[in-house]
Amino acid sequence: MDFRFTETQQLFAGAVFELLEKECTPSSLRRMMTAQESSIKSLWGSLSNMGVIGMTGPESMGGLGMTDLDLVLLMEEMGKVACPETVIDQTCIAVPLLSNATGNKVDEELIKSLITGEKRVSTTLGTTYALAADSVDYLLLERNKEIHLVCAAEVEINLQDSVDETRRLFSVEWDPTEKTRINTEDTEVKRALMSATTATAAQCVGTAMHLLKTTVDYVKEREQFGKPVGTNQAIKHHLADTGKAIEFARPMVHRAAWALSVSDPSEQVAVSMAKYLSSKAVNHACRTALQCHGAIGYTMEYDLQIWLKRGWALAATRGDTGAHSTIIGKSILADEVE
């Protein structure tokens, strides 16, 4: 059996990374923060034009009909550049859920507009706050185990404190109605949340990879006592341990994406193992990067702080190591009982 990604999957991820490198730069993120905005407008349009936003949508509605396995490499690339867009909310959660809604189905034209990226959506499903709620057209919300699609103009949002200024989080005050309720199967909601968790894990890995590369480059150039600090054995050990953590996490994230794509019976525990290991890896990468850079690492003038904050935020998003280790432990105990 060949477990490698296909050439098409790798080429697509490479093309997306080239786009992200050009449009999601540290300077563009800083401009976004200075303007107190939640999105790089040109970036969302470019990702939409490439088909990224609608890649999980059904082909009958203009989507690409792709799976989590096709998406996972793209999420890694987004983690490498600290992409601030609501791709996970829209591509992993909203588009699949709304496309498979039952009963009072969602207007097909609305779904098509989400697939093309013309309209944007954020969600609080699986999280406490809505990401970039001030830059979207709709919000996918939950109340009493019911899913509602609410127009953003009809809710009140309040900006919350966040460690990561490039991920602006909002609380949402709203009133559910029968008109806003979406009929969805519990299994579909669960699957969408697992997809979002796997995508978040992939972004953790991408962020960790960027932190490691940046730190390696830095310790090669930074000299102390007439030689690069990277020649010190203690520095090498820190970097090696970080690399090992990433290499342990990355295959598990890929495995989780595969499990979701084929509806494997072990998909839930695979997703939790992926998020557990990727959160550990990015936390480790943050500590190593900060320790090897020294005080300069957390100054606002130095770009590293953008990825440090993103790493800390992603590690806790959609379940931290404690939450997912509990899920894994329960699965192990259940197997022993059987």
Domain tally: 2
CA-atom Rg in angstroms: 20 Å
Helix content: 55-70%
Q: Output the CATH topology of the largest domain.
A: Butyryl-Coa Dehydrogenase, subunit A, domain 1
Query: CATH homologous superfamily of the largest domain, by name?
Result: Acyl-CoA dehydrogenase/oxidase, N-terminal domain
**Beta-strand residue percentage:** 5-15%
Counting helices, strands and paired strands, the structural category is alpha+beta
Instruction: Please outline the major beta sheet.
Output: 4 strands, mixed
Helix count, DSSP H or I runs of 4 or more residues: 11
End-to-end gap: 30 Å
Strand order of the largest sheet: 1-3-4-7
Task: Specify the overall morphology.
Answer: globular
Number of strands: 9
Q: Just give the CATH class of the largest domain.
A: Mainly Alpha
Q: Average pLDDT across residues?
A: 93
What is the string of SSEs from the N terminus onward? HHHHHHEEEEEEEHEEHHHH
Characteristic terms for this protein:
Butyryl-CoA Dehydrogenase, subunit A, domain 3, 2 domains, 4-stranded mixed beta sheet, 9% strand, 57% helix, alpha+beta, 338 residues, 3-stranded antiparallel beta sheet, 9 strands
Descriptive report:
The chain is an alpha+beta fold. The chain has 2 domains: 7-182, Butyryl-Coa Dehydrogenase, subunit A, domain 1 (Orthogonal Bundle); 186-337, Up-down Bundle (Butyryl-CoA Dehydrogenase, subunit A, domain 3), CATH 1.20.140.10. The chain is 57% helix and 9% strand. The chain contains 11 helices and 9 strands. It has helices spanning 7-23, 26-34, 41-49, 68-80, 87-99, 108-116, 186-221, 233-261, 267-293, 304-316, 321-337, and strands at 121-123, 130-131, 138-143, 146-151, 156-159, 169-173, 181-182, 223-224, 227-228. The strands form 3 sheets. The protein has a 4-stranded mixed beta sheet with strand order 1-3-4-7, with helices on one face. A hairpin with a 2-residue loop joins β3 (138-143) and β4. α5 packs antiparallel against α7 (186-221) and α7 packs antiparallel against α8 (233-261). The longest helix has 36 residues, at 186-221. The radius of gyration is 20 Å and the shape is globular. The protein starts with 6 loop residues before the first helix and ends with a helix. The mean pLDDT is 93.
